[in-house]
Amino acid sequence: MLTFQSWGQHTKYTRIFHEYYDEKPVHFGFLFGFASTNYFMQADQLALGTLDSVRSPRNFGFQIGGLVNYAFDKHWELKSGINIALYERQIQFKSDANNPLWRESTWLEVPVLLKLRSLRRNNHRMYVMGGFKFGIEANVKKKSSALSANTADLSLEYGIGLEQYYQFFKFTPELRFSHGLLNLYVPPSGTGSPYSKLNGIRTHTVTLVINFE
């Protein structure tokens, strides 16, 4: 006498791409990165008067490279590769605001990162990562106001990302934070420049990385 509608089979179908992706431990791909970079500086407050008299504005950088991932299991993965990066960094002094020191150069970078991935939900999952990045400066654009600095750097790097699976590839955007561990400061030959009053510069970079695997 009474009828009820059953919703037991009323479930939206979701196609699962690359269902057996995790069964293969090694995967390759390439990346593009868009960076914001500057220097962290150390100085004697008495020598400069105040630390507010020196600043390093953020400048745009770009990365391109290849990557390789090795999965230990469904949660832990090792990520590495080789990147070519273009950076421009500046140091400005209030005492000589019209003549900033700058360094525009090409870097060869090798990151080694450990990823912790969440469980996969249909075609996506989140992850966090952390590790180190070794960089060698391959080329510096010469200019009269070029900044003297060492050409090798080691950085602490960490970030978060999202793995999104599609029919033919995996799209992985991630946000990385990089803090230089090495002091790149090279004292100038003369003493007239305010740059001689610094005693340390370290790199700092925030990068939006787009990976394709």
Query: Mean pLDDT, nearest integer?
Result: 87
Task: Label the CATH architecture.
Answer: Beta Barrel
What is the fold named in CATH at topology level?
Porin
N-to-C terminal Cα separation, in Å?
58 Å
CA radius of gyration is 23 Å
Largest sheet: 8 strands, antiparallel, barrel
Helicity level:
under 10%
Based on Cα principal axes, name the global outline. elongated
> If helices are DSSP runs of H or I spanning 4 or more residues, what is the number of helices?
1
Q: Report the structural category.
A: mainly beta
Oligomer: single chain
| Strand composition percent | over 45%
Q: Total number of β-strand segments? A: 9
Runs in which pLDDT lies below 50 for 5 or more consecutive residues are: none
CATH class: Mainly Beta
Number of domains: 1
User: What order do the strands of the largest sheet run in, or round the barrel if closed?
Assistant: 1-3-4-5-6-7-8-9
N-to-C order of helices and strands:
EHEEEEEEEE
Question: Would you give an account of this structure?
Answer:
With 213 residues, the protein is mostly beta strands. The protein has one domain: Beta Barrel (Porin). 2% of the residues lie in helices and 59% in strands. It has one helix spanning 45-48, and strands at 26-43, 54-55, 59-71, 76-93, 101-117, 124-140, 152-165, 170-180, 198-212. An eight-stranded antiparallel β-barrel has the order 1-3-4-5-6-7-8-9. A hairpin with a 4-residue loop joins strand 3 and strand 4 (76-93). The model has no long low-confidence stretch (mean pLDDT 87).
